[in-house]
Every structure is written in C-alpha cells, then in structure tokens.
Amino acid sequence: MTEDLSRREFLGVGAVVAGASLVGTPIIPSSSPARRAPQVAPSNRVRFGIIGVGMQGSSLLAESIKFADVECVAACDVYDGRHTLAREIVRPDLPVTRRYQQLLEDRTIDCLIVAVPDHWHKQIVLDAVSAGKDVYIEKPMSHNPADGVAMVEAAKRSGRIVQVGSQRVSSQICAKARELISKGTLGDLMMVEAWLGRNSPSGAWQYPPPPDLSPQNLDWNTWLGTAPKRPFDPILFARWRAWKEYGTGVAGDLLVHLVSGFIVMTGLNQPPTQTMTVGGIRRWKDGRNTPDVQLVQYYYGDLPVSMRLNLGTSIEETYRFHGSKGLLEVTASSVTFSPQVGTDQSPSYYASSFPRALREAYFAKWHAENDPRPGQAPLSEVISFRGPGYNDIRPHLWNFFDAVRTRKPVVEDAVFGHNAALACHMANDSYYKRSAV
Ligand SMILES: NC(=O)c1ccc[n+]([C@@H]2O[C@H](COP(=O)([O-])OP(=O)(O)OC[C@H]3O[C@@H](n4cnc5c(N)ncnc54)[C@H](O)[C@@H]3O)[C@@H](O)[C@H]2O)c1
C-alpha cells in the first residue's frame, strides 16, 4: 500500500467516526486490511489509541496529548464513564469503544497505551503486537511468570516496540546514581536496601468506586476476563490491586518500581537468583488476599538486596547502596553520596585493654604514623544532586513515542519489564509458600 492510500484511508475513517459514539461500532470495517503493520503517517505524527482510561490511563493520556506531533485518536474502556473521561481529556468527539479489538483493527493507529488491571496485560499485549501495533504497557508487565515469558516471545516475534511503564527507568535521578556507581565511586558494592511506606486508606488502595458504576455501563464479564467468574462488585472494580486474581499486591504495584530503579542504577538487568519474603496483612483487613507488609530479601548473583514495603507506616521511597567507599542514598528527588575512607581514623579501641605502658606506646606509635600533618587533614567530600518536583512519566512516554517514530530501542523493553516483574512474582511466591524461591 502506498503512503497516499494509507493516508486517504485514515482520513476517510476519521470522517466517519468523528462525532459518533463507537460503543459497539467497529472503528473501521473488519474487512479492511487491518492486520498489516501500521506506519507513522508521512507527517511524522504519531497516532495512538488508549486501552484502559482509569486512574493511571487518564494521567498518561493527559500527559501524552501535550507532546507535539502525538495525537490520541481513540479510547477503549469497558466502563462507559471512562469514555466520558477520555473525551473530556482529549476532545468531545473522540472515538470510544468497549472493545479493544476495534483499536487493533484500525490501521490508522500506530501504537497503544495500555493501562488495564494486571490480569489483562498479557492478552492485550499479545493481540496488539500481532496486529502490528507498538505498545506502552503499564507495570508490572506481567501478572505471573508464564505471562511474562509469552509477552517477551511475542515482542521478539513481532518486532514491535514494547515499552513497559515503570517510569523510574527514565528518571534523571536514577541516571545520576547510575553514573556514580558505574564509575566506581562506591568502591565494592556490599549490599543494597530500598523501602517505601504509606499510611492512608488511599495509599492502601481503598479507592471509592465510581458512584454510577453498574452492569449497564460496565462490561463486567470482560473486566473479569480469564479471572474466576464473580458477581458484579464495584469494590473489586476499584480496588483490584489487593486481590491476586487481578493484581499483584504491593509487589507488582510498588516493589516493581524499586526493582526497576535498582536495575537501572546497578545495570543488573536480570531476575534475582533467590528470594525470601516475610510479611502479612497487618493493617488493612478488608478481605484482601495480598500482604500489606512485605519484606523481601534477594540475591542478585552474590549481591544481597533487601526491599521493604509497608502500607501501615509512611516512609519516603529511598534506596541505600552500601559500598566500601561510602554510602549512596537515592530518593525520588535526590542523590547523596557520603564517602567513607575505610581505614581507622583513630588508634584501635581494642588497645584500651592493654596495660598502660603497652597502651601508651601503641597510641604514640599510631599517632606518629597516621596523624595528618598540620593543615593537611583531608576534607570528606559529600556529593549531592537534587531535582525537586521531577516528573519521570513525561520522559518515559516520550521515549516510547520517539521510538515509534524512529524505531530506536526503548529504555524499558519487554525483557527488562519481565526481569523486573519476575522479582515481584518471586517475592509473592516466597510469601505464599513461606520458603525461599
Ligand atoms: N506506572 C505507575 O506509576 C502506575 C500507577 C498506577 C497504576 N499503574 C498500572 O496501570 C494499570 C492500571 O491501573 P489503574 O490504577 O489505572 O487501574 P484502574 O482500575 O483505575 O483502571 C483500569 C481501567 O481499565 C479498564 N479495563 C479493564 N479491563 C479492560 C479491558 N479488557 N478492555 C478495556 N478496558 C479495560 C477498567 O474499566 C478501568 O477503567 C495497572 O497495571 C497498574 O499497575 C501504574
């Protein structure tokens, strides 16, 4: 097909759909040559569709349409209230549908942003890449390890771009830390720890369901997908993260961010070798079946890594990299390296157990050999970077749209997303089995 024809076809489609609600109506006829790979229009404008316009999807949508030469041309959600929301964000006549397959069939769509609950990630990504679409899929990439394997294979087989939505990967803060670590500032890396805590109902996902939600404006059956059938439940719709049938608990929701940042900063793009987890449902006993406190110990090769999540006490998201030459602390908006010399700064306190004559002789010798000359005492140099209010979603989305246009690799491909998600699945597996995984 020539670019001219593809352009005409897209213009024709645009004219048909403008102003019409597409609930139950194909965005383009199913007889169209939909399964061919799309291409970015000659104008270089990236045309995207969005699947899932909930809490995260709506924010990705609002951010994406701010980019020049990036346009949202259709939105899909199984809840009609989110069609209204998408139209409020983009334009009143945005084509909307409950069936994501209609976006896959639309040849004028180059790529998709997918922000649906975790149990839907695999199927939509598999369908999208086989329909020739590039995909931005939210984190955690997979709902379980087998889904992740299938997604990596599908991405490889199709050659489509898959960017996973752990925005820490595009953080300038993490990039700064990575720079320091990779040039050996920390000396030998001894261990890594990271933590994150919240202390509020919303922080623990007790979200209010949309007040008008009903089986009339929501396709509940499709929302459930391959999960066990259950009667319509607005609480589940809003708070699905807390149940393992749809979500992945604090591991897939929050630990995945810590792990993704860790992978970027250390360059260890691999799954952990071993995981041991303890935790429990300590605070939010609302029927959930995933822990609200989870302490995870990993081996990454021989590197011990400890990550702790707590929905009962608030604590700022922080990493600490312990090295033989000092401590690197990373928060969402700062990087601070405090050097340590790694040698005794005073005579060994063990010598206080020597009898006086021996002790004094030892002290005198130590000072003579180690005290700096007057005026030459070294200063310790703390390195610190700050980026208050830094938004890492914007560069992460931009990296994706740019890759769609240029075909350059993205920063968080399916292999990276799979490795990060595997760390979370291993943490959950170890928690439920009460043994090392
Ligand atoms: N990167 C981040 O910081 C971040 C933050 C929040 C959420 N997320 C991720 O984004 C994803 C969505 O989370 P959320 O909080 O927006 O959830 P949400 O429940 O608010 O929104 C999900 C939307 O998907 C729709 N949906 C479900 N199945 C569908 C299907 N088959 N076809 C079309 N629409 C469907 C639902 O109706 C809902 O509107 C999750 O994977 C979550 O982990 C990422």
How would you describe what is shown here?
This protein has 437 residues and is α/β, with parallel strands linked by helices. The chain folds into two domains: 3-169, NAD(P)-binding Rossmann-like Domain (Rossmann fold, 3-Layer(aba) Sandwich); 170-339 and 382-433, Dihydrodipicolinate Reductase, domain 2. Helix content is 35%, strand content 19%. The protein has 13 helices and 14 strands. It has helices spanning 3-17, 55-64, 81-89, 101-105, 121-130, 145-158, 172-182, 220-224, 234-239, 249-266, 356-370, 393-406, 414-433, and strands spanning 46-51, 70-76, 96-97, 111-114, 134-138, 162-165, 189-197, 274-280, 293-300, 303-310, 315-323, 326-331, 334-339, 383-386. Helix 5 packs parallel to helix 6 (145-158), helix 6 (145-158) packs antiparallel against helix 13 (414-433) and helix 7 crosses helix 10 (249-266). The longest helix is centred in the last third of the chain and has 20 residues, at 414-433. The protein is elongated, with a radius of gyration of 26 Å.
